[in-house]
Specification:
The protein has about 230 residues and is α+β, with helices and mostly antiparallel strands. It has four helices and 18 strands.
């Protein structure tokens, strides 16, 4: 099974609809995933040796019929799954971003069913998925193998969909942890969570982080890197 078809199977589980049962002329998620990857590849920019920037903001224009289909499937779930797929693909290609990857849908009544258009751009955010060697000036969090470049002053982690980094862990509070970049250092602060913040195994209300520190919230383990050039980690 190809990577894109695995994506489609994952999307089917999320929205609980077998896409093979849909109108054959309708847009299929695998087509969206494939086109988004091509858009990413077509708009990369080599900003320095070994540093290739990719767009992180994507807009998909759909016919009225396809827009209705996607609304019924669960637009937010589909957008998130496609964004995760793009992030994973970018990591495999060692691309970097200036902000979190986001996919949005809009309706275009001028399009026929099965036809869609994709546009992209870069939108700077508080965090950005990153890969080995992506940056040397911003702190980095590694959460279950996914790295985030902290490009903003304050980053909030938690289960809340509006958190800067959403952590899917039942032991994590909606707004669990704040990472604040200050002139005196990078400070991790527990935001009054239920299960607390642990740094190097010790529960603390707040801590100034050192390169290589391990943080734990709920059952989630977070590695912190200062942003200095990293050796082979883990």
């Amino acid at each position: 099974m190809s990577v894109l078809h695995r994506v489609e199977r994952g999307l089917e589980r999320i929205v609980n609809i077998p896409f093979t049962a849909l109108d054959k002329s309708a847009v299929k998620p695998v087509e969206l995933a494939s086109r988004l990857r091509r858009e990413l590849d077509d708009h990369t920019d080599a900003v320095a040796p070994g540093r290739v920037m990719a767009p992180n903001s994507y807009k998909v224009s759909l016919s009225s019929a396809d827009f209705e289909h996607i609304t019924n499937w669960g637009m937010d779930a589909l957008a998130m799954e496609l964004a995760v797929n793009l992030s994973e693909y970018a990591a495999s290609q060692h691309y970097i971003f200036v902000g979190p990857v986001a996919v949005a849908f809009e309706e275009n009544p001028k399009l026929n069913i099965g036809k869609f258009e994709v546009s992209s751009g870069s939108s700077r955010g508080a965090i950005a998925p990153t890969t080995d060697g992506a940056a040397e000036r911003h702190p980095i969090l590694d959460i279950d193998g996914q790295r985030y470049l902290l490009t903003g002053q304050v980053t909030v982690l938690g289960r809340d969909p509006d958190a800067d980094i959403v952590v899917d862990d039942p032991g994590v509070s909606r707004r669990h942890l704040e990472i604040r970049v200050t002139p005196a250092g990078v400070v991790a602060t527990d935001l009054g969570s239920t299960n607390g913040l642990f740094v190097e195994g010790h529960q603390v209300p707040a801590a100034t982080l050192l390169d290589g520190n391990t943080l734990t919230i709920g059952r989630t383990r977070i590695m912190y890197w200062s942003g200095a050039p990293m050796q082979n980690d883990h």
